[in-house]
Amino acid sequence: MYTQERTAMANLVVGGPVAVNSYDNAIVAALVENRPVMLVHAFNGGYLRPLELGASSHDKGVKLATALDPATKDAQGHLWHVTPGGFFGQRPLYFIESAAGQVTPPPAGAAAADAGRGDDGNPKPQRRRVTVHQDAPQSTADTLQLGLPGKVGDKWRGKNGAVEDTQLWVVTVTPWGGITFVPITHPDAILGFKDHAVAKDSEARLTYNWGGDFTGTVINTFYPRLPNEWDVPYHHVFT
Asked: What is the pTM assigned to this prediction?
């Protein structure tokens, strides 16, 4: 049924020996190297993009687009960083951050909110993160926002005082060679689309994981693609 055997997630996230093939290299780049990737849906080849590309938007969501227009490409609205964000037990957690509207903080000493520093000592860029609504997925309205931790609405903030609670995701490699996203605040749900419709301009939201485990279902599988691989055909589930 499957076209090939997949690499175990445990090998991908620790940076150890990884059997990389033409379908896995973008997963490794996203999870280990934190390189920006396109998140292309397995069902129709559409890609995730913010509803609003500008850095000042913090109350809008994410949608599935099927055409890569010049404005989106110029603003890097087609690119995402899957950024490490800690651990849940032994399972790594990640933020889904948009490259669109990325703001580079001023040098050290300037008056600005410090989002942390990289290995080189420079301030990390501020990127808007995909944030989960506290009432998701029971409510179909406003279940995702894209914004900085301190600027999203109250219902998109963690209940225990940690703003990042609602922005952390388990990233799981599926048997079909893609990845699926599980929010830590709603472990029985995965990143899906409004009304379960994987179509042009479908709004992203949480949807129940009918598979019942962390492998997810094929309709919510995303293939990370490096930007130069946008036109490279990807394999399908069934042969």
From this structure: 0.80
Residue pair 196/207 in contact (Cβ under 8 Å)? The answer is yes
35-56 pLDDT, tens digit each: 899 998 887 778 999 999 999 9
Whether 207 has a pLDDT exceeding 90, the answer reads: no
Residue 45 buriedness (CB in 10 A; 0-12 / 13-18 / 19+): middle
Mean of per-residue pLDDT scores for the chain:
76
Place of tokens 């995303």: 222
Read off the tokens for 52. 């609003």
Name which of 157, 126, 163, 131 is nearest 145 in CA terms. 131
Contacts of 160 (CB under 8 A, 6+ apart): none
Cα–Cα separations (whole angstroms), residue 181 to 42, 71, 206, 211, 223: 14, 27, 10, 13, 12
Count of CB atoms within 10 A of residue 135's CB? 14
What are the φ/ψ torsions at residue 166 (nearest 5 degrees)? -85, 10
CA distance 122 to 108: 8
